[in-house]
Amino acid sequence: MKAASLTTGKKVRLPNHIAIIMDGNGRWAERRGLPRFEGHLAGLESVRSTIRCLNNQYQIKYVTLYSFSTENWNRPEDEVMSLFRLLEEIVDKETLELHKEGVKIRYLGHLQELPQGLQLAINRAIELTKNNTGMTLSLAFNYGGRTEILDAVCRMIAEGISPQSIDEKLFNNYLYTAGLPDVDLVIRTGGELRISNFLIWQSAYSEYYFTDVLWPDFDKKEVEKALLSYSQRQRRFGGL
Ligand code: IPE
Ligand code: IPE
Ligand code: MG
Fold first, then answer.
1. How far is residue 232's CA from residue 144's CA, in Å, rounded to a whole number?
2. Low-confidence ranges of the chain (pLDDT < 70)
3. Which pLDDT value is given to residue 180?
4. Is the shortest distance between the CB of 194 and ligand 2 below 6 Å?
5. Ligand nearest to the CA of 194
6. CA angle 44, 37, 25 (to 5 degrees)
7. Interval between CA 21 and ligand 3 midpoint (Å)
8. Which of 2, 10, 161, 222 is deepest in the core (most CB within 10 A)?
9. What domains, with CATH codes, occur in the chain?
């Protein structure tokens, strides 16, 4: 929990970990009579500006971006391939700048199912930034919350962990997000009111912010609205 000034001039409580479901790229393009790919391309600018804003202006410590779900394999192959290409491009292009800003890059999901070039780009980014102490930026790409939980269970069984020793803390250590704090705020753009298999364990007590704004239209002002909304929530965690 931190305090900072939003445009209201007031000191407000900020989230420590923000997770974003970046949705609405396709509709953004369709509304302009463009191919869906153009929406994904336009969404890259929102990725850049949102990361910069959360890092430089608000010093948010953990940001997790949902950019491809295990269910997104159900899309036409050319869209899937173009998303892979775009991610490879942006990781390659942005890593150096993020590194200079002290950002540590992490990956959440099944990396080995992705094309070789993309795997290499992600691994390079992780390796280069591994000792950074600024914002931790996690990329949930080919990520599914249910798969993550099943993977954790399988690893625990394979390691012969006894049922008596299993508690929430131990379980956390077997998730892709091991070492990351629980999510404080989940933002979903694009108007859908669901979580689409995103961080289902880690967001058990998150605050949610849903907006109709499509991801390519999500800018600094929209970041500010989400943070302001969060700052006005009363988190009780079951208490009073
Ligand atoms: C989000 O935008 C990006 C991904 C899921 C990869 P969509 O592609 O889902 O855009 P809409 O929801 O169809 O508008
Ligand atoms: C959720 O968006 C996944 C990402 C943003 C990566 P989708 O567009 O895939 O979600 P559904 O299909 O509307 O639930
Ligand atoms: Mg969508």
1. 30
2. 1-10
3. 98
4. yes
5. 2
6. 60
7. 9
8. 222
9. 12-144+182-231 (3.40.1180.10)
